[in-house]
């Protein structure tokens, strides 16, 4: 028998890098899609606003739940020079992930072990006299053990009355710190303070008063001989609306993730980085008179088609939102009905305010967007939840996976590695193509996954990249001949690259049928397949539709009944019509 004593070990090592949320797996039913390109864009936008001042990006709470490691990597290459977090553990995690940028942690209690902080070169915020004394004691011990000089930031309470050195202790603390710096025990990076009401226009005087107090506090420190070179007060709202508060550094958090709390004053062009979505599991008809979900909060007035979506309060969706929001599937919004359960919600497919719902089929595997790209905006969803976007962003919990959309330039490299391609045709999905090269690579990957007899309906506005995608597709299939826009040729037949392989028929469905026929196609109705086949035949093509992959531009409503393997591919502008210069496209696919 072993008689090992249980032991408790205390260590100052940085903790293992860990992230609460996992990568999407084969059976993932709910995910946060994190658009790192939006985060890079927001960082650049905020940095451009503050010109000379440094940008400390706040990445507390796992980067507002966007994934610390990926976010930090992104923002450091987009203009942020410093990082801010709440706890020492969070700062340690940044070090454990291999980042050596300056990082400040401001939430701790006197009595916490601080050697790890000094050892990892973490700047410690000092929010009270007691914290300052504790830090100075630890710094002395640290010095006598041969460590280098720790950095601290004095936290001044200018009116939030939460943490920060308050007026009663301020002078004593400043003198103590000034003496310690003179003696070389610590290095003071500067002062910070936090605003109470920067997001409210009505509270401008409150913000002004806080800034005047802050300026006097900096003055006092300088009169005591401290340099305090880098001082900061500006959170996101102050960064975007008060250039007079930028000082030597700004400290935005939520703006990095695309929230502009000052939107009312006009948009500064930040992009929401997070989209929350979950899969449709099943659909059914609930007979008139029957109640839906726990407690029968909702009852069918008529026979009602419903769907179940895989997200519940265990994933962070508040139960108090039962019946108060919508989810969006392929651009069509459906009301959530009945109680929010632990793992699932029910939506009504027959109570959508969108007339397109009548023609829209919802299927198991479809993604239902809760908020974000392709659905309800984060602001709107937050309003429905009667809270602020900050709380909604930090709402999704561990069971929700995180899928990262790469920063533009990174995409190209990522896509050359075919094992890394985000296109998996097995289930409906979507991906971003920031460049023509990535569009082509996506086409190539689709081509590698489809076979003879497949019909691909390709939809997208003029200039969306349909031909580029088809060029990639031709490469993936290995067919012969150069792919061009079919607008003039109507149909072009590409021969297989090798015997037994599929060829490619590339057509403009609209031109094939002629305007008279094409213009009569009603949404949701399909053209009789014989009309299409006859039209193809009349062109005298030396090609067998069954032995080829047929790509039909403008094919919706035309080609769906030509085969039992019809892939619907849609290309959209990522940023809508507001940003015509943005080349990013979203590619969506689903089998119909
Ligand atoms: C969270 C936090 C910030 C960031 O605030 P945002 O409103 O998200 O920009 C800045 N400073 C401190 C001290 C914070 O705790």
What does this protein structure show overall?
With 592 residues, this protein is α/β, with parallel strands linked by helices. The chain has 3 domains: 15-21 and 39-264, TIM Barrel; 274-405, Lyase, Ornithine Decarboxylase, Chain A, domain 1, CATH 2.40.37; 410-591, 3-Layer(aba) Sandwich (Rossmann fold). Helices cover 28% and strands 22% of the residues. Strands 1, 10, 13, 14, 15, 16, 17 and 18 form an 8-stranded mixed beta sheet that branches. Strands 7-6-5-4-3-2-9-8 form an 8-stranded parallel beta sheet. It has a 7-stranded mixed beta sheet with strand order 19-25-24-20-23-22-21. The relative contact order is 0.09. The structure holds pyridoxal-5'-phosphate. Pyridoxal-5'-phosphate is lined by residues 58, 60, 106, 194, 235-236, 251-255.
Q: Give a list of the ligands.
A: pyridoxal-5'-phosphate
* Cα gyration radius (Å): 29 Å
- Give the biggest beta sheet: 8 strands, mixed
- How confident overall, as mean pLDDT? 90
Shape: elongated
CATH homologous superfamily classification of the largest domain: Alanine racemase
Number of continuous helical runs:
17
Residues in helix, %:
25-40%
- Tally of discrete structural domains: 3
**Backbone structural class:** alpha/beta
**Percentage of residues in strands:** 15-25%
Assembly state: single chain
- The CATH topology label of the largest domain is TIM Barrel
Proper CATH architecture of the largest domain: Alpha-Beta Barrel
Determine and state the CATH class of the largest domain.
Answer: Alpha Beta
Contiguous runs where pLDDT drops below 50 for at least 5 residues: 1-12, 410-420
Distance between the termini: 65 Å
Catalytic activity: L-alanine = D-alanine
Cofactor: pyridoxal 5'-phosphate
Keywords: Isomerase, Pyridoxal phosphate
InterPro entries: Ala_racemase, Ala_racemase/Decarboxylase_C, Ala_racemase_C, Ala_racemase_N, P-loop_NTPase, PLP-binding_barrel, T6A_TsaE
């Amino acid at each position: 028998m072993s008689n090992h004593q249980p032991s408790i070990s205390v260590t100052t090592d940085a903790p293992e890098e860990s992230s609460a949320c996992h990568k999407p797996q084969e059976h993932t039913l709910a995910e946060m899609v994190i658009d790192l390109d939006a985060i890079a864009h927001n960082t650049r936008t905020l940095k451009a606003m503050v010109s000379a001042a440094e940008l400390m990006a706040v990445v507390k709470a796992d980067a507002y739940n966007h994934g610390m490691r990926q976010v930090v990597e992104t923002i450091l290459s987009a203009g942020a020079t410093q990082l801010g977090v709440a706890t020492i553990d969070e700062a340690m995690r940044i070090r454990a992930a291999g980042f050596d940028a300056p990082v400040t942690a401001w939430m701790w209690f006197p009595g916490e072990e601080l050697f790890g902080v000094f050892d990892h070169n973490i700047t410690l915020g000092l929010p009270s006299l007691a914290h300052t004394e504790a830090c100075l004691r630890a710094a002395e011990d640290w010095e006598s053990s041969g460590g280098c000089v720790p950095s601290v930031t004095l936290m001044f309470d200018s009116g939030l009355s939460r943490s920060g050195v308050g007026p009663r202790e301020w002078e004593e603390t400043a003198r103590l710190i000034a003496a310690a710096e003179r003696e070389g025990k610590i290095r003071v990076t500067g002062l910070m303070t936090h605003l109470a009401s920067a997001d409210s226009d009505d509270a401008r005087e409150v913000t002004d008063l806080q800034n005047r107090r802050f300026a006097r506090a900096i003055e006092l420190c300088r009169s005591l001989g401290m340099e305090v070179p880098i001082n900061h007060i500006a959170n996101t709202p102050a960064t975007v609306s008060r250039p007079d508060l930028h000082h030597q550094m700004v400290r935005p958090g939520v703006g990095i993730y695309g929230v502009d709390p000052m939107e009312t004053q006009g948009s500064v062009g930040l992009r929401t980085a997070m989209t929350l979505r979950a899969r449709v599991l099943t659909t059914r008809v609930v007979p008139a008179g029957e109640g839906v979900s726990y407690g029968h909060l909702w009852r069918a007035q008529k026979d009602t088609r419903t769907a179940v979506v895989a997200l519940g309060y265990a994933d962070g969706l508040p139960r108090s939102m039962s019946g108060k929001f919508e989810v969006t599937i392929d651009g069509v919004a459906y009301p959530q009905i009945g109680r929010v359960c632990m793992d699932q919600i029910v939506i009504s497919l027959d109570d959508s305010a969108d007339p397109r719902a009548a023609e829209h089929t919802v299927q198991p595997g479809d993604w239902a967007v809760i908020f974000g790209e392709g659905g309800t905006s984060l602001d709107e969803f937050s309003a429905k939840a009667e809270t602020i976007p900050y709380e909604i962003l930090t709402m999704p919990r561990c069971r929700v996976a995180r899928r990262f959309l790469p920063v533009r330039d990174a995409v190209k490299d990522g896509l050359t590695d075919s094992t890394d391609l985000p296109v998996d045709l097995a289930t409906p999905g979507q991906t971003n193509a920031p460049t023509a090269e990535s569009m082509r690579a996506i086409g190539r990957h689709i081509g590698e996954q489809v076979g003879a007899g497949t019909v691909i309906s390709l939809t997208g506005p003029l200039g969306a990249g349909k031909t580029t995608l088809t060029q990639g597709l031709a490469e993936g299939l290995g067919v012969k001949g150069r792919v061009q826009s079919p607008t003039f040729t109507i149909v072009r037949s590409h021969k297989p690259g090798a015997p037994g392989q599929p060829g490619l028929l590339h057509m403009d469905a609209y031109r094939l049928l002629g305007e008279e026929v094409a213009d009569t196609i009603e949404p949701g109705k399909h053209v009789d397949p014989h009309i299409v086949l006859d039209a193809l035949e009349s062109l005298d093509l030396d090609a067998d539709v069954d032995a080829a992959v047929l790509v039909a531009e403008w094919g919706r409503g035309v080609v769906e009944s030509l085969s039992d393997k019809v892939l619907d591919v849609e290309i959209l502008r990522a940023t809508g019509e507001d940003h015509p210069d943005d080349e990013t496209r979203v590619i969506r696919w689903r089998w119909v």
